[in-house]
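[Q] Does anyone have a clean structure-token version of this?
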Amino acid sequence: MKFNNHIDSAYESLHAHSDSAQVILLHPNSQYRSLIVAKLVQDPNVKTFYYALGDDDVNLQSFLEGFAHEMTNQHPTFGRHLYMLPQELYRNFEADLDRVLDTFVAEISELSDTPFLLILDEYDRSDDSSRINRFIELLTNHLPEHCKLLLNGRTLPRLPWLSFIAKRQAVILRDEQLVEKDFYGPHEHDTYQLQVYGLGPGFVSLDNENIDNWEGHLPRLLFFFALDRPIVTRAEICDAFWPDLDMDQAVNVFHVTKRRLHKALDRDVLLHTENYYQVNPELTIYYDIIEFVEALMEGRNPNTPDRFEAYKRAADLYRGPFLQGHDEQWIVERREAMRAGYLEALTEMARTWIERDRGELALRLYRQAIEEDYLRQDIHRELMLLYNQLGRRSEAVAHYQQLEKQLTEQKRELEPETKQTYAEIMA
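[A] Here you go.
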């Protein structure tokens, strides 16, 4: 295939796969990623806003200031919300990150009234800034619906890609190929020294023997946190585990926790390389989260011979909420992502059963999904429609009334689509 054909193929693949996610990562190993970015910027059919991180983007303050300055060249009114922040906050964006994030999202949403692509190029320049990466992680959950974010750089960003992919928030592209497995590198082996299970209470086995000498829960959670991303920094660990301690105190507790982790597993698990920590690459590790996300990707692929079986494998792997029993913020965020993937698996399996005229089996799966997340009204609607389709309208009505009662007690409202579904059933 000629060079230009490769680029065209990769470009078409980007457009094909970006419809299903709001965050797009051009994998660092992509040969044509910079050419793809250039083509996007020059394409008159794609509305883009572009920012390349520079040498000065060493912290969140400089990044946001540089970004705002560049955006004013592309959209003259950009920055007016940021400039209205109190002077003390404008001089120190980290003082109230939530308020700055809300203000930044307001700025982004006004870049265009129509769908657009926001490109952060040379993103690897943020590698040494935990605050920039955390800000972008938070931003991905608050992007305006008409905005997609594309990241391009020479390294894999330190973001929780497994979670992003589980909830269909992100895709990773390596030229024309959608990355569907080995997200952080090859991980399949004939045998595994460590077996790690995060779906459910969370436990770790060493050579098939369950580890129970953690000396507290923190060493075990530290291990799960390190598995969550390609690499992590000490600052990211301290922010996630000990946000209320000053940095010196947090670092001391971190080193104690790391020693206990190594003691529990009788080996060096976290290796320190330059400014980063990563799980020892010489360890062979089975991690159920990776298999779970890969099964979801297989189920989403229209070319998979048996998508039902792929989704079933994902559902079977879900033994409970991620690290059930813990409520740390980073755990709650991952739990919501994995739950979204689990609900996707259940509902896709239910739709397959409906296509096969096995409505009762589909009902069971919808009930299972609702039991996992009662607030997902879209699943309630599918259940009511199925009841009606099976000639059981009275059960659809009863379900609606029960849902309405439960939401009222929780001071929540029925979505317009739910009311419309009920009206159609009653018509």
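[Q] Thanks! Anything notable?
[A] The chain has three domains: 3-178, 194-286, 374-427.
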